[in-house]
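Lab notebook: predicted structure, single chain.

Context: the supervisor wants predicted structures on file for every construct in the current expression panel, including those that have not yet been purified. This is the next one on the list. No modifications to the sequence; it matches the entry in the shared construct table.
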Amino acid sequence: MNSDDLMIFLAVAEEGAITKAASRLGYVQSNVTARVQQLESDLHTPLFHRHSRGMTMTAAGKTLFGYAQRVRHLLQETRLAVQDSPIPKGALTIGSLETTAAVRLPRLLAAYHRAYPEVDVSLVTGPTEYLVEQVLRYKADGAFVSGPIDHPDLYRETSFPEELMLVSEPTALDMHTLGTKPLLAFHPGCSYRSRLEQWVHSEGILFPKIMEFGTLEAIVSGVSAGLGISLLPKSVTVKLEAQGILHTHALPDPYGSVQTVFIRRADLFITSAFREFVKGIPQHIDMASAQSLPAEQPAQSHFIP
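Prediction complete. Output recorded below exactly as produced.
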């Protein structure tokens, strides 16, 4: 068993089929099949269940999968450690909640790009559950998620508070009327959705249905049109309410406040690109709060070298 065998195994496990794995790796299908069979022979155990829909891992395969991921990460980390330089460059993948990406990150990312143009930054958005998984699987270097996050393999770099608001169509409605409208929310795994459901249950309100949307823009448009209600950070709603797009309703504690935290794996190799990104978060996230005000004032942005 060598690292190439493990990379082939990972490709098959992640793609769920020999043909897809071969295409991804640029190998012929028969070669991938033979390498997987040889690995199973070396380990004296089957790693996959073969069926008409493809291949799924056995219990032994799932165990190997975790170790193979760690080997892949160590190989990538070795390359990063050798190639890292004092001047930030290379790739940096950051995950973020949709709402955080929409309001708090544009200024941060713009200032970072101006300071370090040789870094290729990729932004991945999604609910907290998905983003935590991306960081744990080394798919993202770090992510802005809704706290609290308690995981032995994760480290919290920084955090900032968010005030959550119940939002409805521009016309002010009483709670009874709001209770007749659907909840507009992101897909399961969204912490704001969970918080809204907890508050609804605590109030004994029986909402007729939950309507799932994939983007913040779709939720805002639906709420504004009177389709339903939702729960959004005040940093998002302040300007929208001032423009007459939404109406907000304060929530009681503990439902009206949440911490957004920036997480990374505890064993992540800290490149100069990642280190400088983290250093800029407190300053530029604080500046971003000004973006939510109706009378926005331009602000200077810079990163500390």
